[in-house]
Amino acid sequence: MSVTRFFVLFVGLVFLTALSVCLYLLGWVLYIHWKYRHIPSPKIMGNFFMGHITELTEFEKKGRHLSMLFLKWKKEYGTVFVIFTMNRAIVVCLEPSIVKELLVNSRSTKPAALYGKFHTVFGQRFVGNGLFSELNNDHWEKKRKMLNPPFKRKYLMDLMYQYNNSTEELISYLKLKADGKTEVHMAHEFNKVALDIIAKVAFGLDNLNVIHDDDAPFCQAVAQSMKGLMHYIRTPFWKVDFRKESQAAMEKSRKAMIFMRNIAEKCILNRIEDIKEGRNYPEDILTHIIKYSRSKDGMMGMEEMIDECFTFFIAGQETTAQLMSYTFEMIGRHPEIYKKLQEEVDCIIGEKPVISYDDISKLEYMTLVFKEVLRYTPPAAGIQRQNVEDIIINGYKIPARSNIALSHYSLSRDERFWDKPEEFNPERFREDNTSFDKEF
Ligand code: HEM
To answer: What pTM was estimated for this model as a whole?
Structure first.
């Protein structure tokens, strides 16, 4: 075969393959739109093939939360509507009854298109099949049962010493900075203290020095891993992004993840040794993970145990730190709330050097403030699930294996359930307040 013929054949084949892929994708997109044609959907402003991606990104660029866009669309299309992101349909359900239906009554699974992304990031195992990203529902249920005890009140009550300790360290660090001139980024400080507490209480790691050392490698690695994850989620075509700076950023994220996973591995090996040698060890999350790995249901190897440890770090740190940061922001914006909080703390805690679990349960107003912060700015705005069977919501049939978005941010700002939802008002959670739907 002559070189020219070979070249023509090669170009023809490439062209045909590209055409087939395009036709397949177009067919799939049309099919997806057809499948959900009975459910209301906001008008697509940009390219039909891209679906609502343009609207979503434009809204985010204005610095607004996507959940607010869902609330806007709710007014026009009702509480159940479908949005399209290229080849995917996402049914947005803004009804509390469906949250209960999917998470409590009927079986649902985690959609791979979202949760699967957490498994491996830029080719490096991230949280793998940990509790958060476990896609096999049977495996998830067993793991969840086994890893539930550390979330119970009794377990948390025993950790007061550690909370006091880390808070004390943060205060002493802030005192050093309090010269009237140095700016302190409190979101960063809360990130550090959340990390410090989780490392201590969940994994017995008490030598990380994250509070006093801004450049502590552990802290940097967690931040870099999270940055890498966000970059990865927003960059579907990363494999063909050969730009030098992109490659360098990906490599940095991979290294951070390896660093974190290595630390988790060391923790696991040390604890296994402690258990084997009959030394004293705490019944913390790490012990539960190791015990689960050895149970008949668990049967986890080292990689899977590391997945679980890394999951707890990532899931627990960011959310807790955000809750603290938002609380700080809200009390800064509302001096009257700050004053009331201060009065309560002065009255109940006063000059006590160590705070007990009982003291915390007496801080009623503070509890109201935290509840209101969780309502007003929930650190995790929503979740997604897939229904195992067809379900009917508001008269619409949602076909089995649909991606269903549940937004507690949107529900928390919904006038049907809250009086003046845009107002930050901790008092709304008082027992005697009847202005919101308590069942909700
Ligand atoms: C204010 C603090 C927190 C908030 C608002 C929060 C919120 C959430 C939400 C909404 C989910 C469900 C995610 C989904 O299914 O897509 C979740 C899952 C999870 N969270 Fe948290 N979380 C907080 C603190 C923590 C802490 C302190 C830990 C551990 C140390 C933790 C560990 C986890 C784990 C392991 C999961 C996966 C559970 C499963 O799928 O069974 N979280 N969290």
So the answer is: 0.89
